[in-house]
Amino acid sequence: MCNHIFIVTSIYSNEGLTQKTAEKADVRHLGRLSLARTFSLTVVLAGLAVIAGWIFQIGVLTSISPSWVSMKFTTAIAFVLSGITLYLLTKARTGEFDLVQVALSMISFTLALLMGLFIFSAFLRVHTGLEDLFVIDPGSPTCVVPGRPSMLTMLNFILIAVAGMLAVFNTVKLSRKLRAIGIIVGSIGLIAIIGYISGTPVLFYYIAGFNTAMALHTAALFVLLGIGLACI
User: Fold this and answer.
1) What single DSSP character describes residue 207?
2) What angle do CA 41, 150, 168 make, to 5 degrees?
3) Residue 108: φ, ψ to 5°
4) Membrane-spanning regions, if any (predicted)?
5) Is the pLDDT of residue 132 over 60?
C-alpha cells in the first residue's frame, strides 16, 4: 500500500515538475518573441528614416558620415519589408499563421525579386534602372555602382526572404532553420561593424571595382534582424 502511494505521489510530482518546466519554457519563448517584435519595429522605423533622409536630403540619415558609403534607397525599402517579415514571423509563431500567411508570402516574394534583380545586374554588369529609379545616388569612394547595394546586403535580404517562405510553407524544424538564417545574417552584419571599427574595408565588403561597401547602419540593422530571427 505504501509503495502504491509512493508511486502515485512520484507520478504527480513528476507531472508537476514537467508542467512547471513547460511553463518556464513558454515564458522564455514569449520573451524572445517580444524581443524579436521590438527589433522588427526598430528595423522598420530605421528603414523609414533612411527613406526620409533620401527624400529630404538629410545626409546623416543616409550615410551617417559623409566619408562613408550610404545605405541605398532600395536597401532602406528592403529593411522596411524585412522588419515587417520578422514581425509577421513572430505573429505566425504565436498561432496567427492563417492571418499572416498571405502577407508574409507577398512580402517575401517582393524582397526576393528586388534583390534577385540586383544580383542579376551585379554579375552580368547590366543596369536595371532600379539603381536610380527613386533617387539619384551621388556615390562615394567605397561605392562601385551608385544605387546598387553591396553583394552581401543582397545575400542577407535573400536569406530573410527565404525565412519568410519557409514559414509560409510551414516546414519542419522551422525554428532551427530560422535560427541558422539569423546567425548567418547577424554574423555578416557584425563582421561589417568590426570592419568599420578596425578600419578594414575588406571586412565591410568593399572590393574596389567589384563590390560596394556595406553601410554601417545597414550592418547594425542586419545584426538586429539576425538576433530577431534567432529568437523565433
Assistant:
1) B
2) 45
3) -65, -40
4) 38-56, 68-90, 102-124, 151-171, 178-197, 203-231
5) yes
